[in-house]
Design a protein that fits this description.
Elements lengths: L1 E6 L9 H9 L5 E6 L6 H4 L8 E6 L1 H10 L7 E5 L5 H6 L5 H10 L2 E12 L5 E6 L2 E5 H9 L3 H4 L2 H9 L6 E7 L2 E7 L1 E5 L3 E2 L3 E2 L11 E6 L4 H13 L11 E6 L1 E10 L1 E3 L2 E2 L4 E16 L27
Helix pairs in contact: 1-5, 6-8
This protein binds magnesium ion (MG).
């Protein structure tokens, strides 16, 4: 096996779990390149030689992993997402057993699922055009303000930084969003308008039900409320009804489609998979890249298949599960 591990040492709490993973993954005869990213890494350069490997492991937080996944789009090499970040929502959405040993085993078994990515384009207020990929959610409004406010505290507080930021900002901007989904336009007022490839957030709460990464569709989520106390309501309901099937989601409306355009009545901040773009935006477009990512999945994943005993790279049965 030839493995490429791309690791962002700035992600999360600086855990060394990726080195335990590497030790579990490699066996006699294997080769491994461990590429440690610099602060100003360019995603395209970091994975430009990926086609020459049997497996590519992306180790970092959601922002790092999704930017690299976008550069690997449409490549057939299996890609393993390794959770080294603060929240690791992509890895929770993939649902693999998260321990280093279990992920190493999944890589040797080599079962993958072809999952969708999103692509988002916008012009910043200086007129510059941007296009990038996302794996989870991107959007404008309160969520982006929260990400920005949480940033200084993420390293010490972890996920709690987001909740602290929400409580410190009780009056978010209300905007009028013009939402066009596959040619049909809807006008809505709210504090956030998100485009989601997958909609499960912290605590296994699905913001909207039945949002999947393999249906070739993106979901648009509008939060139609004007204060943080109201915003806590859908989250509280979420704790009682994690899937969203039983009581639904008050103050949240959603649409589903392939091509999406959002225009906001006021310039608002934009975030892409938790990273805030500089400046403010008044509109953005998003489209789905169907089945563009070949992600390693194990039988625990909702995108995985039952273990049939096969192993693409061999040696998977000697990797022990952690005690
Ligand atoms: Mg989908």
């Amino acid at each position: 096996m030839r493995a490429l591990i791309v690791h962002n040492p700035r992600s999360g709490f600086g855990s060394d779990a990726i080195f335990q993973f590497e030790r579990a993954l490699l066996q006699a005869g294997d080769e491994c390149v461990m590429r440690v990213l610099t602060d100003d890494f360019v995603a395209r350069e970091a994975v430009s030689d990926a086609a020459g490997f049997d497996v590519v492991v992306l180790s970092g937080g959601d922002g790092t992993i999704s930017s690299l996944l976008y550069e690997l789009r449409d490549l057939s090499v299996p890609v393993c997402a390794f959770p080294s970040g603060t929240a690791n929502l992509l890895c929770s959405n993939l649902g693999n057993a998260p321990e280093p040993f279990a992920l190493a085993r999944a890589c040797r078994i080599g079962k993958t699922a072809a999952l969708d990515l999103g692509e988002i384009s916008w012009a910043s207020d200086d007129g510059e055009e941007h296009t990038t990929g996302f794996a989870l959610m991107s959007g404008t409004g309160f969520d982006a303000q929260l990400m920005q406010a949480a940033l200084p505290n993420k390293a010490i507080m972890g996920q709690a930084a987001y909740f602290a930021a929400a409580l410190a900002n009780p009056r978010p901007t209300v905007a009028r969003f013009s939402i066009t989904v596959d040619g049909e336009t809807h006008e809505r007022e709210g504090i956030t308008c998100l485009v989601a490839n997958t909609a499960t957030i912290q605590g296994d709460i699905q913001i909207i039900p039945d949002c999947r990464m393999d249906d070739g569709l993106l979901d648009v989520i509008v939060v139609e409320t004007s204060d943080a106390a109201q915003l806590l309501k859908p989250l509280a309901v979420g704790l009682l009804d994690r899937s969203g099937h039983a009581v639904g989601r008050p103050h949240i409306e959603s649409f589903r489609g392939r091509e999406i355009k959002i225009v906001s009545s006021v310039p608002v901040p934009l975030e892409v998979d938790g990273d805030v773009a500089p400046g403010l935006v008044s509109s953005y477009e998003a489209r789905v890249l169907p089945r563009a990512a070949q992600l390693v999945v194990d039988p625990m994943s909702p995108y995985g298949t039952a273990d049939d005993g096969s192993s693409r790279f061999g040696g998977s049965d000697v990797i022990a599960y952690p005690k």
